[in-house]
Design a protein that fits this description.
CATH topology of the domain at 3-87 and 105-144 and 191-225 and 237-255: Porin
Distance between the termini: 41 Å
Number of helices: 2
Largest sheet: 8 strands, antiparallel, barrel
Number of strands: 13
Structural class: mainly beta
Helix content: 10-25%
Strand content: over 45%
Order of helices and strands: HHEEEEEEEEEEEEE
Shape: elongated
C-alpha cells in the first residue's frame, strides 16, 4: 500500500467519523452520563493497527498529568513487510501455495515505550469528538523468522517428483522448483533478534458517546531504527529503517 493511498484513507476516515459523531443523536440516559463530563484520571485501551507495511495490535495505559496532558505507556506488536514483496505462485503444478519470491525473513516487531497526549479540545456535554495530538518513543525489538518453502525435487529412486521443506536459498530455489510456502510455524526456533529504537507521532480522535468508554480512531507516522540492518529480501540491502504511516481503531475504559 502506497503512502498516498493510505493518506487518502486516513483523511476520509477522520472526516467520516467526525461527521457521524457530531451529528449523532443520543438518548436521555446518554445525555445524563455525558453531562457529568467527569475527568477520569486513568485509561486503558486496545487498538488494531493497519500500516503501510502490514498490520498490528496496540495496548496502552494512560494517566492524566493535568486536564490537557496525559502520560502514556504503550506496547505494540507488528508485522513488518518489505515494500517490494510480490506474491507468487508456481503455474506448472496443481494445488500449489502462494509465497513471496526472494523473501529471506518474516519480520515481527515488539515496541515498548512511553509518550504523551495533549488535548486540543474537550468533548462538549452533548457529545461530539475530542482531538488529541500525541508523541511517543522507546525500545523496538525486531525478530526475523527465516522463510521456509516446499521445494520440488526428483526422487532418484522412484523417478517421481516429491516436495521437501527447505529454508529459502536464493542460489538454489527458483520460481520453477518452488512448490509454495511451508507451514507458518516453521522457523520460529531460529529467530534472530535485532534491538533498536522507535518514535511515533500523530492525531487521535475520540468519537465515543460515553466519556468513560472511549472509541478512537488514530492516524500517525512511526519510525523504527536499528544499528544493524535486518535482511528481509534476498536481492536488496538489509533494512535499518522502517518508516510507516498507520491508522488504528480502538476502544478503551477511563476510570479513577
Amino acid at each position: 500500500m502506497r503512502f498516498s493511498k493510505l493518506l487518502h484513507i486516513v483523511s476520509v476516515s477522520l472526516l467520516v467519523f467526525s461527521s457521524l459523531a457530531v451529528s449523532a443523536q443520543y438518548s436521555d440516559e446518554e445525555f445524563d452520563t455525558i453531562g457529568d463530563n467527569l475527568l477520569f484520571r486513568k485509561e486503558l485501551n486496545g487498538s488494531a493497527i493497519l500500516h503501510t507495511n502490514g498490520w498490528g495490535l496496540e495496548f496502552r495505559i494512560g494517566k492524566n498529568q493535568s486536564i490537557f496532558n496525559k502520560l502514556m505507556f504503550e506496547a505494540d506488536l507488528l508485522e513488518m513487510k518489505d515494500s517490494k514483496e510480490i506474491k507468487s505462485i508456481n503455474p506448472f503444478f496443481t494445488n500449489t501455495r502462494s509465497y513471496y519470491y526472494g523473501k529471506l525473513n518474516a519480520v515481527y516487531i515488539l515496541r515498548t515505550g512511553v509518550g504523551q497526549q495533549r488535548m486540543l479540545n474537550r468533548k462538549p456535554y452533548y457529545g461530539g469528538v475530542e482531538l488529541r495530538i500525541f508523541y511517543s518513543g522507546g525500545i523496538s525489538a525486531a525478530f526475523a523468522k527465516p522463510v521456509y518453502l516446499n521445494i520440488i525435487k526428483l526422487d532418484e529412486g522412484s523417478y517421481r517428483y516429491i516436495t521437501v521443506t527447505e529454508r529459502y536459498n536464493p542460489d538454489d530455489h527458483f520460481p520453477d522448483n518452488i512448490y509454495g510456502r511451508a507451514s507458518f510455524t516453521k522457523g520460529f526456533n531460529e529467530l534472530s533478534f535485532y534491538p533498536g529504537l522507535y518514535a511515533k507521532a500523530g492525531l487521535s480522535v475520540d468519537f465515543g458517546t460515553l466519556n468513560q468508554r472511549p472509541k478512537m480512531i488514530e492516524a500517525g507516522i512511526a519510525l523504527d531504527a536499528y544499528p544493524k540492518g535486518i535482511p528481509v529480501m534476498a536481492f536488496r540491502d538489509p533494512n535499518q529503517f522502517f518508516l510507516t504511516l498507520y491508522i488504528s481503531f480502538g476502544i478503551g475504559k477511563r476510570y479513577d
